[in-house]
Each structure stands twice: as structure tokens, then as C-alpha cells.
Write a structure and sequence with these properties.
- α7 (273-285) links the parallel β4 and β5.
- The protein starts with 61 loop residues before the first helix and ends in a 15-residue tail after the last strand.
- With 402 residues, the protein is an alpha/beta fold.
- It folds into 2 domains: 62-66 and 171-387, TIM Barrel (Alpha-Beta Barrel), CATH 3.20.20; 90-167.
- α2 (106-116) crosses α3 (131-168).
- The protein has helices spanning 62-65, 106-116, 131-168, 201-214, 231-244, 251-256, 273-285, 302-313, 328-335, 337-354, 371-377; strands spanning 179-180, 187-192, 217-222, 263-270, 291-294, 317-320, 361-363, 383-387.
Length: 402
């Protein structure tokens, strides 16, 4: 157990070298989760307004809203994964090229025409008419032409980037870090089912097949079925597991140990108890048990707490996910390790114990972790759970240590 004076921020790491720009593990633009673990990248300065306001009062649904923006990930999210089957530009939806001029947009069409044929109309090669007014109009048109040209180029680059990202994404059967082999590993990593993750059903099924073949447990996570992921996708995942004879496994069952055996572990993160309750009949239809990593438990209404107890009564697991869903490494840097434990981690475990649960795992918000934090938190639980990405994401380090 930890004790004594407040621990200082992570030693040996120059804060100027900590990457702060980028997308979090769920695709939202936020501060960087990890300063010193995973696949290293050169740090960038912290952009204004990205630091967590540790004193702000956060409402119950704030964590859920942090995972509701699949469009924040234009290259590697829900759109790009649809390109996997054919890896062709024709699979990029038109909405991703909305900046190009269209026949129904007269201003954009005129600008595009001037850019392509500057001698026609009032472009670069057109004679002046009407004195200063015509000159101003021509200057405005030329700016519009340049803007349309840049828009075309940007749209083409976005299309190619999305296609390349989708085509380079491995299937989940190729992501070694998301498999638990019933060994002494205590820092576990899951990958996303949410739309923003880009992991389509074919990839998920390939991962389930590998778990069955390897006597290993594949770890997946999501947030709010019906909002961050289609309920049909969740059902298709547990249905396929049932079809191939792959049982679901909760974190409590992982902690219980036993001989190596195949399994599927699905975690539901944050605090959308209503969405989880609505998903329960689908899970029950396939005899599937899952783990709910709950943040802000103390702020849940009595009705939602009762609903969680009902889910636990039928075999689901309830585990800790932080008091205020804070990013661990940044909080440690700002306030120290001891404060992070005392204010964010341990109370989220204690409140569950006080309400009749037996938590044995802590899921890091955003998957953000360091070895220092792992060592401290693992004095109190059997597992910590981070996340991993299925394709490299610009400006972000994968938080998984493997």
C-alpha cells in the first residue's frame, strides 16, 4: 500500500517532450494520454484550451459526450473502415468530399470555373470593366478561385488519407495486445467496438476466431449502444461468439483465474446506465455477460444505481473507471501521484465496495497510463485496463505497453 508524503510528478520526463496534441483513444480531440509508454513520438506543445480543468464541476453525462463524435476522426473512423473491402476511393462517402464545388452551388461552381478557365468571366485574364468596382470584384473572384482550388486539393488529400488508413488497418486477429492468455499479465489492453474505432464486423469476427483457436480471451470495449455503436453491431458480435462456441468472460472471471481457455470480454465504459439496461435483453438472448466500468458512480441517481445492481444480479460485472473521468498522466503531472490516487482512483473503487460490489479492476479514462501509475494502482486491484489502436494515429502514442 502507498503512504507517506505526496509523490512528485513522473520523474525523468521533460514536460516539454510530452505529446499533448492528438486524438484520445476514442477519437476525440483532447490532450495526449501518455508521456512515456507505448510507441514513442516526438512531443508537441500543449495547444491552448486543451488542458483538463481539474476544478470544473462535471455533470453526469460528460464522459458519455466525450465519445459521441465519430466525425472527429475523418481518416480512421466509421467512414474509413467502410473502405476496407475494396480499398478504393469510390468507397469514400460523398459527405467526406463536401468541400468540392458542385453544380447545385452557384458560387462554388463560378469559382471553380474561374480557377479552371481564368481568361473567361472576370478571372485573371479578363479585361477590367467598371473601374475600381470591377477591379475589386475581379480580386474577390480570384480569391474565390484560389479557395476553390485549395478546397479541391484538400478534399482529394482527405480522400486518399482515409483510403490509405482503412486499407492499412489490420484485422483484430493480428493485434496481439488485445489477447489475455491467462498468465500473470496485469496491464490489459482492449480495442474498440465503437464506430469511431473503425473495427468492422469482419475484423471483429476474425478476432473471435483467433481467441477460440488460441485459448485466449479477446478484450473489446464500447460505451453506449445506440449512440457510440449500433446495437445491431453489439448483437452481431455476441451472436457470432455464441455461434462458434466462444463464451463471454467478465473481469471478475479473469481475476478468478483457471486453466487457459478461450473467451470474449466486452467492457461498457462510463455511465450510460440507460443504454446498458436497454442492451441487457440482447446480451441475455445469447447468455452473454459483460463488464461495466463505471465513472461518476456517486452522482448516479438511485434509480440508475438500482439498475446497475439488477445487471450485476444476472451475472454482469461492475468495476471502477474513476471519480471524474480524468486523464491520469496529466493529473499526476499537475497535482502529483498521491493526489491522483486519493482523489480519482481510490474513491471510485471504495464507493463501489460501499455499495456492495467487489471491484478488482480499474479502467483508465482514455486508456491513459504510465508505468508509475500502473504500479501504484495495482496495489489496490488485480487488473488495470488500457486501450490500443488498430492502426497508427497521427500525433498520438498508443497507450498500451505491448
Amino acid at each position: 500500500m502507498l503512504g507517506g508524503p505526496q509523490t512528485q510528478p513522473v520523474a525523468g520526463v521533460d514536460p516539454r517532450q510530452r505529446t499533448r496534441a492528438g486524438r484520445d483513444a476514442d477519437g476525440e480531440l483532447l490532450g495526449h494520454p501518455v508521456p512515456d509508454v507505448g510507441r514513442q513520438r516526438q512531443g508537441l506543445p500543449d495547444p491552448p484550451g486543451r488542458r483538463v480543468d481539474l476544478e470544473r464541476d462535471v455533470d453526469d453525462d460528460a464522459a458519455a459526450r466525450q465519445h459521441q463524435r465519430p466525425d472527429a476522426d475523418p481518416a480512421g473512423g466509421a467512414t474509413a473502415h467502410r473502405c476496407v473491402a475494396r480499398c478504393g476511393v469510390d468507397r469514400i462517402p460523398a459527405s467526406r468530399t463536401h468541400t468540392t464545388a458542385t453544380a447545385t452551388d452557384p458560387d462554388a461552381t463560378r469559382a471553380a470555373t474561374i480557377a479552371t478557365h481564368p481568361a473567361s468571366g472576370r478571372g485573371h485574364g479578363a479585361p477590367r470593366r467598371g473601374g475600381d468596382h470591377a477591379d475589386a470584384q475581379g480580386h474577390s473572384d480570384r480569391r474565390g478561385a484560389h479557395g476553390a482550388t485549395i478546397a479541391h486539393a484538400a478534399a482529394a488529400l482527405l480522400t486518399l488519407t482515409a483510403t490509405a488508413t482503412a486499407c492499412s488497418r489490420p484485422g483484430l486477429d493480428e493485434v496481439d495486445a488485445i489477447y489475455f492468455h491467462w498468465d500473470d499479465e496485469r496491464v490489459l489492453c482492449a480495442t474498440g467496438l465503437d464506430d469511431v474505432s473503425g473495427n468492422d464486423l469482419d475484423s471483429v469476427r476474425a478476432g473471435l476466431d483467433r481467441a477460440l483457436a488460441d485459448d485466449a480471451v479477446i478484450l473489446l470495449f464500447t460505451h453506449a449502444p445506440g449512440r457510440t455503436v449500433a446495437l445491431d453491431k453489439v448483437e452481431a458480435t455476441v451472436a457470432y461468439a455464441a455461434q462458434i462456441g466462444l463464451p463471454t468472460v467478465t473481469f471478475a472471471e479473469l481475476a478468478a483465474g483457471g486453466p487457459p481457455r478461450p473467451g470474449l470480454s466486452i467492457s461498457f465504459d462510463d455511465s450510460d446506465v440507460d443504454a446498458w439496461t436497454a442492451t441487457a435483453p440482447v446480451l441475455a438472448a445469447y447468455d452473454a455477460r459483460v463488464t461495466f466500468f463505471v465513472t461518476r458512480y456517486a452522482r448516479l441517481s438511485s434509480a440508475r444505481k438500482a439498475a446497475l445492481h439488477e445487471l450485476a444480479a444476472v451475472g454482469h460485472d461492475v468495476e471502477a473507471h474513476g471519480v471524474d473521468h480524468l486523464r491520469g498522466p496529466q493529473t499526476v503531472e499537475d497535482r502529483g501521484l498521491r493526489t491522483y490516487l486519493d482523489d480519482e482512483v481510490l474513491p471510485s473503487i471504495d464507493v463501489l465496495r460501499a455499495d456492495g460490489y467487489d471491484p478488482i479492476a480499474f479502467a483508465y479514462p482514455f486508456g491513459a497510463r504510465t508505468t508509475e501509475i500502473d504500479d501504484a494502482v495495482l496495489d489496490h486491484v488485480r487488473f488495470v485496463r488500457s486501450v490500443t489502436f488498430t492502426t497508427p494515429v497521427p500525433l498520438i502514442t498508443d497507450p498500451c505497453p505491448r
